[in-house]
Amino acid sequence: MKKTLGRIYVLLIMLFLYLPILTLIVLSFNDAKSMSVWTGFSLHWYAELFQSRLMMGAIVNTFSIAILAAIIATVVGTMAVIGMSAMKPRQENTLMAFNNIPMLNADIVTGIALMLFFLMVSWPRGYMSILFSHTTFCIPYVILSVRPRLNKNTDRLFEAALDLGASEKYAFRKIVIPELKPGIMTGFLLSFTMSVDDFIITYFTRGAGINTISTLIYSEVKIGIRPSLFALSTIIFVVALVVLITVNVHQSRADKALSAA
Amino acid sequence: MGELIRLEHIVKSFDDTMVLNGIDLSVAENEFVTLLGPSGCGKTTTLRIIGGFEKPDEGRVWFDGKDITDLPANQRLLNTVFQNYALFPHMTVGENIAFGLRVKNKPEQYIKDKIKYALKLVNLDGFQNRQIDQMSGGQQQRIAMARAIVNEPRVLLLDEPLGALDLKLRQEMQYELVRLKKELGITFLYITHDQEEALTMSDKVVVMNEGYIQQQGTPEQIYDEPVNAFVADFIGDSNIIDGTMIAEKVVRIDGKDYPCIDGTEQGFPPRSRVDVVIRPEDIDIVPYGQGQWNGTIISKLFIGVHYEMLVQSEDGKVEWLLQNYDQHDVGEKIGMKVDPENIQIMQKPKSEAESAIELDL
Predict the structure, then answer these.
(1) Which one of A44, A161, B192, B329 is CB 3.0 to 4.6 Å from A166, fit for a cystine?
(2) Domains of chain A by residue range
(3) ipTM greater than 0.90
(4) Superfamily of domain A50-228
(5) Global pTM?
């Protein structure tokens, strides 16, 4: 009895989580524009998606901004961590507190603040202003994920490398960077997802005539949503799913290889 | 044997805390020197100054006649085996060992031969393609040794290299280290808080506490003739008792007078107040009334080879620690006897720092 109840509970949760997405996927293959009547299987919303310059432009913007912002934030954040590690603990803790504030801050505040900043310095809003904003809000996440990797142990390894005759540069490149790598990767992926996901900050810092996927969907909703957006959402969902499965399979294989050895 | 390393009045403090209070130390070529002391005594800082990881506030470091105080760590002709080995986790065993040689751009064949030679030396033949996290603590310790010695340093600095190993392995590695040192023919500067390790392996033991060198000498000298209560207590168990020199070479302890071998010549004139050290194994148990003093056994503990007993003396208020191979019962009345040469007279601590040491005991 208890077991069945448990199963039903899990089933309900799954339903709530995935039924909406399933609806979306089904509708993206619907022949008609209707959101309630199934009139037959069709791929023409997908065709429309790839033919729409507006949508393709938004996709390119979204991912190019995400990749660039993630790269810049990762480099800047990692350098910041290395600089911070040389500070006295008190200074570093103060700085870490400042680093944490933007992450807790509401996106709407960050978005409006950035918009006002761009207006004040009369920086034209467009691709570059979005990129700048995304880089800014990604850096704290990179710092947060890289900082724990740089600890007493890394210091010891660095010293060991010096002891063996390595120059500081060589020791840094060959020993410290590989030690930080997992943190750097996490920071990069986190930045990338945060950037792709973002709507509010992008909405306030973009100019007229430039769209990312999220702002495009938002403006489409106002004039009536087209099923080609379902097609786009489906593609994004499937890509994310495939990436997730690949990473997990890879991870469990690596774990197995390690425990077998 | 020429002098290889000399420390000249090294002073070092961290954030207003004095860590080293003027260390003078000389290490000869091919010597096995151990810095021994409790944690926080400054031994690791001393090693880090020699290794080039810390700069002394005052004083100079000499290496083979040259002043290396300002020379960066990567240009010093010495290598360190770190406390937690500091092996590079993302490299294989072989790559770890090759690191120092790669830095110096040695030819690939030379590096290959060296890795093989070093692994053989530390009894890890054929392990070069293993990952570091697949190796046990003892094996990691050997890899750290191998990584250091392939660079043919003139001095090997060892920072508590056996600290993380279990007792059995530690004892094995002690023999191993002595063997390695013989085979390599280089100088070892070793750090430990384990007095047994220090006594077993070293040519010279340097006992440190609170940033001062308390005593240096051969293991026998340190054990048999500790200069103060700290050294006596840190090196093995001992009875440290207040005493007064009442005549030339006669000391009054526990209300009784004993002949001893130290006198005015050694700096202990009559009437001076002194500390007396008697090692627990130097006190012989004799039938009641036949020894120099009598007492009652108040506790007994069997610790492997011998029994350890606490004896309350009859005449005074002293509790004596005894170690004896024979079994005696608690409550038994016994006599005790000690030879004059086993009564070690020491100066009472004079400076404030030295008194502080005594309070810690």
Answers:
(1) A161
(2) 50-228
(3) no
(4) MetI-like (1.10.3720.10)
(5) 0.78
